[in-house]
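Try this one yourself first.
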């Protein structure tokens, strides 16, 4: 019972000492034996000033950093926007460029397609010239045929021709035709005829009557050419074989040779008439051909000949500025190839006409060889050969 009481007494003593110390303890300002209140007040004031300055500096610094952050953020955002806009602009530029290139490629392709399907101006001119050439050739053939028929009748001395009555009448008919149109000075002085104009005098003996004019303009021009052809080939046809001249034995023997003569002369006339007909007025010239004739200084006429038309068409392409300019301006291979094809077709046409003339001249050469063979046989055949017995 004594131990618990002892512990309680000790606790009470400690509690009492604690309270006594609190009551009797010195004031804080006097803790070190002198009054430290002012010192503590100054320290508190300094700490407040320092805290205020720190807070103010912190506020200024925070404001500056915030402003910098704001401005920097705006700048970065603006640069970002600029970069985005630049990328977008580049994309738009690229898209626009692609569209332009695509449109350009489309237009180029359309132009190529148009060139491939459009007709060039020279194509039309060439076609018109070719058609005129064919028409002229056909009509020239008609002219040559008419001359061949008339001269064939004259060569055979058919009824109604000068030589029907005899060789003398045939010669006089030729003289009369000459005196009437082509009388020269000597014949006029002899009183046979009246001298002709310089253009007509002796024209039936001048090769220029046949070959010089590109077209026989007017009847006199074609008469001059035909008169020269007659004088050159057969001025007088032999007298007709008729009556006793063909019923007698001698006449019968002569008839094959007369037929051979007629055939040879007809071929000769046909060759010359072919040349003559090429210069007869047989076609209406195209505008391009007339322009070429004017450039060359040739008398421009509406009517032309096959020979003139062909020459103008060839010269128009060889020296004509219009054709050369159009050829240089052709943008596609097709147009140039068409011109080459047309030139090749024209060359074929000329070669074909040359071939037809060569056919006739080849037959004429064959006749010449036949005449030489006949003359050689006549020279080497003895007239005294016995007549074979039956």
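Now uncover the answer:
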């Amino acid at each position: 019972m004594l131990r618990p009481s002892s512990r309680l007494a000790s606790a009470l003593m400690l509690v009492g000492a604690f309270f006594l110390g609190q009551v009797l303890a010195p004031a804080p300002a006097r803790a070190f034996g002198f009054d430290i209140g002012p010192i503590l007040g100054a320290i508190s004031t300094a700490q407040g000033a320092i805290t205020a300055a720190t807070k103010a500096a912190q506020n200024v610094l925070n404001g500056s950093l915030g402003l910098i952050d704001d401005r920097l953020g705006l700048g970065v955002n603006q640069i970002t926007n600029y970069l985005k806009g630049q990328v977008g602009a580049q994309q738009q530029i690229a898209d626009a460029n692609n569209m332009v290139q695509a449109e350009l490629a489309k237009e180029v392709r359309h132009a190529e397609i148009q060139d491939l399907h459009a007709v060039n101006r020279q194509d039309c001119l060439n076609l018109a010239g070719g058609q005129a050439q064919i028409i002229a050739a056909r009509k020239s053939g008609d002219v040559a045929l008419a001359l061949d028929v008339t001269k064939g009748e004259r060569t055979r001395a058919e009824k109604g021709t000068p030589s029907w009555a005899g060789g003398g009448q045939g010669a006089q008919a030729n003289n009369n035709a000459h005196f009437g149109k082509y009388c020269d000075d000597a014949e006029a002085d002899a009183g046979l005829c009246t001298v002709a104009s310089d253009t007509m005098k002796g024209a039936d003996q001048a090769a220029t009557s046949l070959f010089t004019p590109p077209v026989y303009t007017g009847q006199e021009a074609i008469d001059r050419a035909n008169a020269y052809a007659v004088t050159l080939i057969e001025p007088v046809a032999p007298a007709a074989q008729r009556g006793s001249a063909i019923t007698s034995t001698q006449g019968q023997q002569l008839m094959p040779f007369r037929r051979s003569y007629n055939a040879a002369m007809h071929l000769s006339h046909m060759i010359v008439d072919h040349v003559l007909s090429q210069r007869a007025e047989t076609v209406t010239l195209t505008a391009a051909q007339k322009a070429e004739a004017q450039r060359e200084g040739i008398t421009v006429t509406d009517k032309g000949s096959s020979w003139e038309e062909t020459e103008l068409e060839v010269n128009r392409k060889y020296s004509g500025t219009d054709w050369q300019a159009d050829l240089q301006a052709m943008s596609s291979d097709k147009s140039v190839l068409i011109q080459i094809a047309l030139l090749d077709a024209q060359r074929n046409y000329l070669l074909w006409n040359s071939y037809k003339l060569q056919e006739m001249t080849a037959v004429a050469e064959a006749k010449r060889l036949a005449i030489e063979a006949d003359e050689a046989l006549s020279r080497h055949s003895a007239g005294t050969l016995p007549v074979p017995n039956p």
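Discussion: The first strand starts at residue 283 and ends at 284. Residues 14 and 20 are 10 Å apart (CA to CA).
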